[in-house]
Write a structure and sequence with these properties.
Elements (H helix, E strand, L loop, with lengths): L4 E5 L3 H12 L3 E5 L11 E4 L1 H9 L3 H7 L5 E5 L6 E6 L1 H8 L4 E4 H10 L6 E2 L4 E7 L2 E6 L4 E4 L1 E4 L6 H7 L5 E13 L10 E6 L4 E7 L4 E9 L14 H7 L5 H9 L4 E7 L11 E3 L14 H15 L14 H6 L1 H36 L21 H13 L13
Parallel strand pairs: 1-2, 1-11, 2-7, 4-13, 11-17
Antiparallel strand pairs: 3-6, 4-5, 8-9, 9-10, 12-15, 12-16, 13-14, 14-15
Helix pairs in contact: 1-5, 1-9, 2-9, 9-11
């Protein structure tokens, strides 16, 4: 398949992962990011074996090992007295079980790693997409600053509020979970009683606190999930009120209260997802990551699913459904030979559309299952018993909830490419 000009809208982790996967196939990729500079906000995140196995294949294993933390285990602790109720070993045991490491890693570290793996000039910051149109020669992008760009393929990786998604599928309705989450990072030397190698979960009567290590265990990310039907701001950057955070966990065990007391800055976001889309693609345009399947965070799969999307998309655009050399006409050739361009363009467009349909056909059923399962899964299953003590009977179900996801190899079973 001849190599394509591919425009990726959105310079987050999903967009950069797509750019890296496609660049590795030899395509000419440009990433258009609306922010004036490329950088990732946020705190820690989970990278399951299903995501890490793909990044390792892309040559990023050594950097993942340097920047990420492989937790030795996961513990559920009692919200009131703080004792460990049950521990699930991870580390080498999960590596053997799932065939790739489980990492916790700071979002900015993974984002930087991906950005530095791309060829110089791939990312164009300060480009906010306003509209796009398909033409006989591909897709035309128009940006807020008046500039334009052309591409053979457009990938919308622009998040849950995606402009590309809205154009393809129309306006949608965000589904509110009734919960919001405080999140932030605390230096571990401020809470020396907490380990730097363990995922910790405390589930109380009306809130949950999750804590896990990043940056070699020198810092701990916390995510405090609280019910609140009034807080409906779906924003990653809205400040979280520290007095309210402290009030939510007043009366909890000493470790949780010490953690909350050490917080100097927090963000708060309301937890929304969307109903799964019936279609992701139209013509030469498709979606990826949160733009395609925004999901609640309870399975810790947002980033890993985007990486899986990127791997499958790159494969499908490299498959025989893509345009053949006789159907590929550059802009320069089209200008000098308009008749040839007109004759070949329909075949090229059909081939690209078929490749994107194949990508969607592989990914959409899988991500729909993950997306809907996130609504009732994860630590939401943990509830104190009626006497106020923590129930310990659900740890096995927590692991079962995500084991099929983490065992998944997105590249296994894909149709092999024909010899050149």
């Amino acid at each position: 398949m001849p190599k394509l000009r591919i425009a990726v809208v959105g310079g987050g982790i999903g967009g950069l992962a797509a750019a890296l996967a496609l660049t590795r196939k030899g395509h000419e990729v440009r990433v258009y990011e609306q922010a004036p500079e490329l950088r990732e906000a946020g705190v820690g995140m989970h990278l399951g074996p299903n995501g890490s196995r793909l990044l390792e294949r892309w040559g990023l294993g050594e950097r993942l090992r340097a920047l990420g933390v492989r937790p030795a285990g996961m513990e559920v602790r009692d919200w009131s007295h703080g004792g460990t109720l049950v521990r699930q070993p991870m580390g080498e045991e999960w590596l053997a079980e799932f065939g790739a490491p489980y990492y916790t890693i700071h979002r900015a570290d993974l984002h930087t790693m991906l950005a530095e793996s791309l060829p110089s000039g791939t990312v164009r910051a300060g480009h906010r997409l306003e509209r796009f149109t398909e033409t006989g020669g591909g897709v035309r992008l128009e940006f807020a600053d008046g500039s334009t760009a052309g591409a053979d393929v457009l990938i919308g990786a622009d998040g849950a509020h995606s402009v590309v998604r809205r154009t393809l599928a129309g306006p949608d309705t965000a589904v509110f979970s009734g919960q919001s989450a405080f999140r932030g990072v605390v230096a571990r030397d401020q809470v020396p009683g907490l380990p730097g190698d363990t995922l910790l979960v405390w589930a109380g009567p009306d809130a949950r606190m999750l804590v896990y290590p990043v940056r070699g265990g020198r810092f701990l990310t916390f995510v405090a999930v609280v019910p609140d039907p009034r807080w409906r701001l779906e924003s990653w950057s809205a400040p979280g009120d520290l007095d309210e955070l402290a009030a939510r966990f007043d009366g909890w065990n000493t470790d949780v209260k010490s953690l909350v007391a050490a917080v100097r800055e927090s963000r708060r976001w309301a937890l929304y997802d969307r109903e799964p889309l019936a279609r992701w693609s139209a013509g030469a345009v498709t979606l990826l990551g949160d733009a395609a399947h925004p999901m609640l965070p309870h399975h810790g799969q947002g980033v890993s699913q985007a990486v899986e999307d990127a791997a499958v998309l790159a494969h499908c655009l490299d498959a025989p459904t893509g345009p053949d050399p006789s159907a590929s006409v550059s802009a320069a050739a089209a200008a000098s030979a308009p008749a040839a361009a007109a004759a070949s363009a329909p075949a090229a467009r059909r081939a690209i559309a078929a490749a994107l349909d194949a990508y969607e056909g592989v990914r959409r059923p899988h991500t729909t299952r993950v997306q809907l399962g996130s609504r009732g899964g994860g630590s939401q299953r943990l509830r104190p018993d009626e006497d106020g003590t923590e129930s310990t009977g659900t740890m096995s179900s927590l692991v079962e909830d995500v084991s099929w996801i983490q065992r998944h190899d997105a590249e296994a079973g894909l149709p092999p490419l024909p010899p050149p």
